[in-house]
Amino acid sequence: MSAESRLFDAIKYLGKLTKPFPGAECELLLDNEIVTGDFLILEVSNMRFIGPNLDLFPDADPRDGQLDVVWVDFDRCKEWREYLKALRNGEKAEAPVKTRRCRKAVFRCVEIPAHVDGKVFLTMAAPISIRCQPGVLEVIDFS
Amino acid sequence: MAATLWFAQPLFNLRSGGNPIYVEPRTVVVMLLDQMRPVEEVLSRFDSAPTKRIDLGILTNPDGHRIFIESAGLGLLAIFMSEMRLLEKKMVLESD
Question: Residue A122: how many CB atoms within 10 A of its CB?
Fold first, then answer.
């Protein structure tokens, strides 16, 4: 199976998982801004791409000393599935996300699955605080 | 993406003698799509490729600290990662 077809299947599967997901009630503190709601996806990133190559952070800069926070409100499930469908069809589409850039994020959530890079936790004790440590990792740039 | 970390791990001790080395995820993603230069070519540039410094994320909760390079999150994508891992394991078992 080619990488493209694996990616296609992964996006399709993500769409399939979207339907039964009940949403996650959460309260966020992004620097000084409070955001509350039911979320489908809630991610804090240093990088541009996430999951099955989703370009949810097009302006992400891993060297800016800030975190990029992106979320999809639960009431936008339908648009999210349409976005995934468009990706599968090779169409350009805009993800129904909201974004913020901050230095520190604090989550107070109900018990829902979480991940830190590739490590998944079925539940993670709250409150969860995330901060950025600027420029501490040296990487080799082959690009 | 797990693949990124998988790729980073073998590189860990090759050049730095213990200092963390990491490959930009975009590069690895391109490699997964078979559009990147051959591994041999990349490795031939190992000593001459430029380095740069990037940020790390630090997650703290009542259980302690965790460091991340790419992202941390809650909800659907965490479930997706977990499910994909299970599917991969199942596929490996079936192929054996």
Answer: 11
ipTM for the complex shown: 0.91
* Residue-wise pLDDT tens digits, A99-134: 999 999 999 977 789 999 989 999 999 999 999 999
Chain B's closest residue to A102, CA to CA, is B57
Does the beta-carbon distance from A17 to B83 stay under 8 Å? yes
Residues of B (22-51) whose Cβ lies below 8 Å from A: 22-27, 29, 32-34, 42, 45-46, 49-51
Q: What is the DSSP letter of A50?
A: B
Model pLDDT for residues B11-42, shown as the tens digit of each residue: 433 444 444 444 544 444 333 333 356 677 77
Q: Closest chain B residue to A9 measured between Cα atoms? A: B84
The length of chain B is 96
Tokens 């959460």, residue located: A26
A47 touches B at CB < 8 Å: yes
Between A7 and A98, name the one with better pLDDT.
Answer: A98
User: Which residues, in sequence order, are CB contacts of A108 under 8 Å at separation 6+?
Assistant: A26, A27, A28, A126, A127, A128
Nearest-CA neighbor of A40 among A56, A29, A60, A61? A56
Q: The tokens 């791409």 sit on which residue?
A: A49
